[in-house]
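Predict the holo structure. Ligand: arginine.
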Amino acid sequence: MSHIRGRFHKDADKLVTEYTASIPFDWRLYPYDIAGSIAHARMLAKQGIIQAEEAEIIISGLASIIQEIEQGKFQFKPELEDIHMHIEARLLDKVGEVGGKLHTARSRNDQVALDLRLLAKEAISNTLVKLKAFQQALINLAEINKGVIMPGYTHLQPAQPVLLAHHLLAHFEMLQRDADRFSDCLKRTDVMPLGSGAIAGVAYNIDREFLARQLGFSQISQNSIDAVSDRDFVVEYEAAASLCMMHLSRLAEEIILWTSAEFDFIELDEAYATSSSIMPQKKNPDVAELVRGKAGRVYGKLIALLVTMKGLPLSYNRDMQEDKEGLFDTIDTLLSTLEVFSGMFETIKVKTVNTEKAVRRGYILATDLADYLVKKGESFRTAYDIVARLVNYAMEKGKSFSELSLTKYKDFCPLFSEDVYSITIESSLAARDIIGGTAPKQVEQAIATAKKIIGDFSLGK
Ligand code: ARG
């Protein structure tokens, strides 16, 4: 078989052949395509649709094709369109006529759906493993720097003191939601479509449950038309990847800020920084910038697929061939991002002198002063106004809160007494002793919980 032309009398135009071919990218489906075909051949034999010996010949032919591909000996040709036709054609070359029995009770429409689901399932597992490794790197950094205090920011203005570990665990939480989303999308990916045929189901007594078991699926599809039309699982992976990249990009943005001379909170290991071709003093956070940059690329693939799918009538349409490059690129981008970021975070050094200096500058304890007055009986709004005036006064005089005299405090509100001086960065942290707060005790507990989540993680569930 060179290529399938059915009732046609002439070859496709050369440009058409190239334009419509998916082999330049869908060769990546080969392990799944062959696994699917082996299971299919076994099932056909078990059901008496082909002879057991025929199945044996087909299976050993397929096994040798996988070796040819892996050893780089396999010849790819655009006129064979896609990976499914390549493997089938090669099988016919190798085993002759009997190879033609493999495609009984199957169509490329359910075949490609199967292959893509197998690939997506593996991608989800790999993503979860890499996500967990990165979450572990965040926990490690939090733990090594357990006592480190920094300003917490809102509007990128110093707001209230927080523990660096608390901040890092915020990112842990975001990634945990990502992990949940990927696990959840696995449920809908884990559905075996073979048996749907081209659209209507196949006219043979096949055993779909057997196929599902052989291929490690926990469910089989319930409607043949839907099964060959459905690419929701690809959209879902790309959507979950987009959210995850958004999270990684926000963290990347902080790394970029924190390595700037203006913040100077952290030092990147030289293995994870780049130099400038012209300015010898520079140490650039290019890795983080590319994480931020690649988020846009991942969103692009999601939007592209949503747009591709939105106008398609049921069932399979060739437009759907456009699902693959975006998915492959998204998987590669996300996995490499997680991997390189894990390495980077394992080697980040926190400049604790600078984080400490930053938190002790300015009027970051203003909320605590207001809370102090509230505890002495003032309403929060009035307390807020008093402290606002106090801040203005202190700024005018160029003084910090601790440099103001008690008499001065009392000028602003008679409720102030000597114990106002016990309001410190440390007391501010310790006061936030509620679940989710930045009190050292709480953060210690949160680190333990995060470790347990990672420790309990297994791909099996
Ligand atoms: N190359 C095709 C794709 O990627 C495989 C399925 C083709 N089916 C068809 N009837 N032309 O979607």
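The CA atoms of residues 357 and 407 lie 28 Å apart. The chain has a mean pLDDT of 96.
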